[in-house]
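Quality-control log, excerpt.
Job 1 of 2 completed; input and output follow.
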Amino acid sequence: MRLESELTGTKLELFSGRLIVIKRTERLFIVVDNEKVSAETTAYKKIPQILSFTDEDGNDNMKQVIEANYRQVKADVVLIVESEMERIKNDPDLQHLIQKDG
């Protein structure tokens, strides 16, 4: 693939108290070597499937799997927070970090 371009733009000049606007445009040409691209694409290897979202009946269950993962992560976070709060409560050096009610 080869890129060819013509660079242009907008230029403002102040000439004898007048503002002169010079407009330019930019054109970009992409030249593709079809034979080279075709040779590259035939050498591609298929990416192996890591996880399937279809059940044994062929039904798509991606939404259910994602929802279950979301709920599991949420439950794990709650468990981590609760265990860390308990650890902080039981550590005399860290107890001051917990806000007292009222």
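Job 2 of 2 completed; input and output follow.
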Amino acid sequence: MRYAEEAAERQKENSNDTQANLANPAYKKYVRDRATEQDTLDRRHMGFPVPVIVLGVNPAGHHVGIHLLEEVLATRQSLSEERQLYIPMMGMADGQGSFSPHERMEYTVAVASGLTNAAIQMVIEEMPRGHHMQGSGYKDTREVVTFAGQRECIVFDTNEDQRARAKFLPGMLKAGESGYYGVIFGQRPESHMKMLTKAFGDRLLVADVRVPGSAANSGSVGRIKAQRLLQQSLDWYIQRPAIKEELAKLEEGKAAGFTPLRRKDVRHNQEAAANGGGCPCGCSSDDVAKHMSGIMSMCFMDPKNAVRKLALGDFQMAVAMGNIFCGAQPGDDVRVVTHFTDEGLMPVLFDQLEKAVEEGHYGRLYGLLICAGNMCIFQDDGGQGDLLRREMLKRGLAAYLTIGRASKDANVRTAATHTVTTLREGFDLWHRNCTACGKLEEVVDTYQLCAACKARVYCGRDCQKRHWKEGHKAECKKLAAL
């Protein structure tokens, strides 16, 4: 049995009653607060993401793990305003269980949200009361890191007891093997330090959180340690070579007028491929199908809310709508599409397409092209479908499909190519406009593409040279990397 399957089985065995473990009234309040927060949560513009996993969140010792969670919540706004950083909490564990976001999230979606503030606050309140995370998430710390971890995240070990540190050592070693950053403090056995140093290399920080004697009896030792731990970790993290390089690229992007996000990395693609198109945490295709089926039902029953969620950046809404359009029966397809366009889908769709390209967001671009493509394919006798297709092309669909066909992501390329083939062979509507002058292409696929990015089309050399000076020079590398 694969490791992911074994983990899923253990999770199933340990997930009997989270509500009982975390006290019913508190849990019910948490569920309400989480639902409200998830509807409005959008931290994409708070700054550079520093994904974090905290191991050892328990009431032992000075509660450093709990105080670290408090510090993350307390400094969200100031970090964003003063340092252009924000900390998405990817997961936390107490040795008996864990909390982490939905494992199906890809990198850019996960770090744009992370655990809700409601979830973090619930843990802060319930842990000192003797409650724990048993029955929630993963008990094994290796599994916590494997499934909650994201590219370039920091994994903190906040345990103060040596026995607890030994229990969490496998999780820390897994973090090092995964290429993450590690932060520890306090004295460790020499054998443990050798293993940690070997796993992390220069990606390990041994923080100095010692508290002066004058403050040792103040009752706030844990809080002071947590503050120092977070401050030192952020100062150290942004000076790591890989992070400095990404921050420099981000500044270059801002200077050029766009703000690209870090996209999902090669590891995510490899994991997705290994799971046969499923999710990296090993969820079965049946689980994924059930998940999407639920979203589709919600979309169809409440199109206004679905369009609103899409406007907030929830690209799963686009995939669900695209599946609904594709599955509509002949004769009903016009009614189904207008079910959503009447709620303002068209402008929202193209607004999100523009943002997806600006931010280099693979997953969102894929979902949006699925939605747009399946809006184009239905036949109708009254001409409504033709009017819709022409309106979408007028809004710039051909330009986004051209970008999609040149994407390095296979799913994006497939979605775009399928729609182009349908428009060209099914409706004779595949004609592009010159990016520079807007002249319509008279003969299909005769305009020349930019040789570097293959995402912009030109009617001639003069237009290409002019557009290069007018703005394409600044965007070409970004489009080539999409």
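Post-run check on job 2. The domain at 3-252 is CATH 3.40.50.720 (Rossmann fold).
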